Design the sequence.
């Protein structure tokens, strides 16, 4: 399956210009979000246990439970991108329970809802995903020991989060979430060994909404000129 068709999509569409002082205070400002994310994480664990038995006996996760699990993943991702000074805009306290990203924040998570799942795969997915665990350990170490210290000083002294480093961190999260969705019963597709994105939403989410700082991005094309309405029919 190509990345563009993958049902688990993770992205961060925000300017990489970050004020120099922000790495020094984001850890403090994000505390309310981290507390909420912790509570949502506990809820996700309970729902995941329920999902296991539902898949085992019915081959399906009820859509409201599925959407709630996706919402907790989305919330945690948005908080993490702010805590790790990957963006300037403060994430919203948004609890919209949809499997598709609601587009209110530049950090997005969408997971397509499956109508039917294999009832036996939950018993063996943890084992089949072992190769991914091994790779993710090395990627996580690289992000923690190399990427985050470099990006901290890069933002501190230049006011810019290097785009290549940020893309790597987003890619690691994308890979990790795809593995998590596979192992924890949300999808049956075996995740690719890839950091790459699938279909990328326009800047600001699927609806093309903009966020603070979007106008400063030099890579964004100018808006298309307005098309005048057709003249009314004569006579």
Sequence:
């Amino acid at each position: 399956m190509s990345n563009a068709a993958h049902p688990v999509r993770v992205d961060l569409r925000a300017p990489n210009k970050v004020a120099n002082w922000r790495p020094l205070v984001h850890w403090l400002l994000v505390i309310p979000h981290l507390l909420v994310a912790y509570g949502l994480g506990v809820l996700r664990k309970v729902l995941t246990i329920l999902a296991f038995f539902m898949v085992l006996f019915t081959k399906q996760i009820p859509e409201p439970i599925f959407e709630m699990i996706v919402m907790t993943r989305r919330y945690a991702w948005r908080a993490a991108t702010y805590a790790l000074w990957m963006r300037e805009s403060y994430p919203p306290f948004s609890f919209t329970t949809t499997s598709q990203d609601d587009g209110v924040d530049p950090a997005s998570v969408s997971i397509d809802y499956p109508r039917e799942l294999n009832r036996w795969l939950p018993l063996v997915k943890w084992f089949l995903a072992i190769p991914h665990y091994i790779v993710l350990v090395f990627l996580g170490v690289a992000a923690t020991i190399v990427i985050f210290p470099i990006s901290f000083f890069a933002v501190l002294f230049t006011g810019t989060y290097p785009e290549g480093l940020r893309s790597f961190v987003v890619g690691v999260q994308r890979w990790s979430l795809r593995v998590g969705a596979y192992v924890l019963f949300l999808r049956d597709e075996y995740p690719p060994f890839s950091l790459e994105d699938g279909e990328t939403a326009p800047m600001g989410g699927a609806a093309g909404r903009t966020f603070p700082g979007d106008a400063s991005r030099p890579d964004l094309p100018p808006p298309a000129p307005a098309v005048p309405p057709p003249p009314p029919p004569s006579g």
The first strand starts at residue 8 and ends at 12. The first helix runs from residue 22 to 29. The beta strands are 8-12, 107-111.
